[in-house]
Amino acid sequence: MPPPTTNPSATPSPQPRAPRNPYLDVFANRRIAAMLLLGFASGLPLALSAGSLQAWLTVEGVDIATIGFFALAGLPYTFKFVWAPLVDRFEPPGLGRRRGWLVLTQIGLALACLVMSGLDPGRSVMAMGVCAVAIAFLSASQDVAFDAYRSDLLGDRERGAGAAVSVLGYRLAMLVSGGLALILADQWLGWPGTYRLMAALFALMAVVSAFSPRVAPAQGVASDVRRELVGFVSMLVAGGVVWFALRALPWGALEADRFGRLAVLSFCLLASFAAALKAARWAGFPSFIAPWDAFFSRDRAVALLALIVLYKLGDAFAGTLSTAFLIRGAGFSQTEVGAVNKVLGLGATIVGALAGGAWLARHPLYTALMVFGVLQAVSNLGYWLLSVAPKNFTLMAAAIGLENLCGGMGTAAFVAFLMALTDRRFSAAQFALLSALAAVGRVYVGPAAGVMVEALGWPTFFMWTVVAALPGLLLLRWLRRTIDTLSRPAGSSEETT
């Protein structure tokens, strides 16, 4: 049979259009663009109440112990879970769900930066501290609103892309308010001008938030609004009463030196927090209490909470005064610190996080936590070497790059650990609680670090940062079986090799 012939006059049937790249479908939309810009807004304030502010205070001649106490300005990041339920329950009118809080916090950040730009650190240390706390509080509130907005806005297929793009925006913002701010302040604008520029950026971000995609209204609330408000107010009142009552006691010789004062403040803070929790349970604060109850129902819950605080403690000690050390202790200029500590360090952190994620894809969670925890501790010796060696730009770059690379790997494993601890019934609330607890190490070591540097000097201090990492590693080893259980899906069996 002859082969069939084709009719040249026939109209060819349309060819099926090649499917678009699924990654393009996910990334090329307005919602993901909003994640990039709002991630930038989320990352912009952190350095303005931490590293950049530390550099400003350092060049103005503020003593190192006072600079160390400025780390307490970051406490709102630790306690943001306290008011997070209220952000979930209420919305400022006019802009829709979530966007109202974003705009409100960003306008507040712009105003706080503008006020701070008019202060003299040498004469107005207390006012600078108040502004730093205000920036941290508004920033933590913005983080709560942004995390909720991202969860509400993105669909299942968009969440991975949204998380990646928001992290990229966050890191770019840290580069702007960290390294670039140091260079601008040193070379052109000075610190007041730099903070005015940051105020303008926050005002621009408020406009971006106002025109970001809307999210669907909430279908309903989990509990009665009045009960939530009564519980919240009761918690604040109880904590405040205990705090002021304890501070009114005659502590006398216990507060005679800085270590004793720090111990007294720690006791008062913990007692106030315990009283606040008791009041929340007594009055009824459902969205706050239920996630706690669920977490403490698990085996070794207290030990797991201790590991969250201790795992990155050595890393936090080394990093809390790193900017002050590089400028005052090692003798580098603000431009050199901005170019290396902020730019190279940030890049090394990103590379470390990516490398840590790749390792986690092929190794158990416990192994990653232990390997990266050891590397974090050992990498602090680079700062010790920098403190005893003559001034050397290459050595500074190597020490900073190594420390941030290992810190990034540790962060990847640590975030995976927090996610493994989260109960799916309370994933948003518990992650806020656990991530806030993780910030304790970063915030609370500042005062102790400043006092230790004054008493021991930089070389001995950096040796102690290595020692500070050991309790977390020992606790991690003791919890190995628990962590292995966490990293295995429920109902699965271990594979045999």
From TrEMBL:
It is found in: Membrane. Its main location: membrane. Keywords: Membrane, Transmembrane, Transmembrane helix, Transport. Pfam families: Acatn. One of its GO terms (cellular component) is membrane. The keyword ATP-binding does not apply. The chain crosses the membrane at residues 32-56, 62-79, 100-119, 125-149, 161-185, 197-217, 229-246, 258-280, 301-327, 339-361, 368-386, 392-419, 431-449, 461-479. Gene3D superfamilies: MFS general substrate transporter like domains. It comes from the Bacteria. One of its GO terms (biological process) is acetyl-CoA transmembrane transport. GO terms for molecular function: acetyl-CoA transmembrane transporter activity. It is a multi-pass membrane protein. Coiled coil: none annotated. PANTHER family: MAJOR FACILITATOR SUPERFAMILY DOMAIN-CONTAINING PROTEIN 3, SOLUTE CARRIER FAMILY 33 ACETYL-COA TRANSPORTER -RELATED. This is PAT family beta-lactamase induction signal transducer AmpG.
